[in-house]
Hints:
It is elongated and about 85 Å long. The chain has helices at 2-35, 40-58, 68-78, 80-92, 100-117, 127-151, 159-184, 195-217, 228-234, 251-263, 274-281, 285-295, 301-318, 327-333, 339-350, 354-367, 370-378. The chain starts with a helix and ends with a helix. The protein is mainly alpha-helical. The chain has 2 domains: 2-234, Rhopdopsin 7-helix transmembrane proteins (Up-down Bundle); 251-367, Arc Repressor Mutant, subunit A, CATH 1.10.10.60. Helices cover 70% and strands 0% of the residues. The protein is built from 17 helices and no strands. α3 crosses α5.
Amino acid sequence: MGSISGSSGLLSIDLGLRGAAVGLSLLFAAVALRDRRDSTVALLGAALAVAAAASVICSAPNFPRWPWWSLVLLAFASGGAVIFWLWARAGFDDDFVLRPWHGVLWAAPVGIEQLVAGGFVDWPVPGQALDRAVQVGSLGLALLAAVQTLATWRADMVEGRRRLRLAVLIGTSAYIALGVFQHFSPPPHPSQASVASIANAFVMCVLLGLSAWSVLQATGTPESARALPAAAAIFGETPPTGVDDKHVIEPALLRRLEQLMVVERAYRREGLTIGALSTELGVPEYRLRQLINEGLGHRNFNAFLNRYRIEEAKAALVDPEQMEVPVLTIAMDTGFQSIGTFNRAFKAATEVTPTEFRRLAVAKKASMSPKAHAVSGNDKPA
């Protein structure tokens, strides 16, 4: 009797946590769509919240596998790891762009799970193998998102987004890992809750609770200003200048930075880091990050450096004395490590390639030369 009572208590806790997680997920999705419908990060965040709600429901004890609506929920849940990876990329990589193959990547696990759950594939062979392959793939994407998030952490200039990276790195990856572990080690009786199942629901509640708190605290009261950077980072925005007035942007420090970059051309140095630059300026890294983000409007360190590199490259490309200098040489001289990186950054800033930029500049100069004007004048009717 005691065993039955204990199982019933665990099941109640499990279902209660899952109900709270689903409510928070849907709330988060609604706020994201209401406030930032034009943002890729917000749309992916809303899709991730819906996928999280579906995952919480699908992994609950007693969840039926055969009704049509359960297959719909399973479709949302099975693509959650792909959406999480895309959201992390879009949120933490300012140069990220959604591609058609991302949709194919999302459709792959969704299609496999639909075939397995719908009984179109025999179980356990090959159904179980396909199902476990999807779980391993989900874990791999979570680890990939964590690695990519960590790799660019120091170069991120948005303080609220830097804090959010840690939550993404630790929290969501841990949740996906717990889900995979639970999938590979299900309870003896599917109708009963297990410690792993309760832990899964609890971690999801904590993650969604923190996210919803950040978003909701960002509106309404002056005291909520401290939460605004985190909420802005969730929706892919740059936190507004002046939210945290603990350290005001110092004009003298801004001038020193501009002197270092414009006159001394520090951006040319190979392997220049935010740490080395802060040491040279004699300020802590967090102060330099704030200066670059709020004072100059850059969201990451590479974008900050590339601004000066591209300006010098543009001047070199239109310089008559450097018309014979290869584009590769100009790229290397300005601090870029490869021609591919240079071409991508240059086109993102000017919408044309370096070669096209030089050709257009030459054509414009030729059209404005005295000889061209003379010919034009001779062609006019008397």
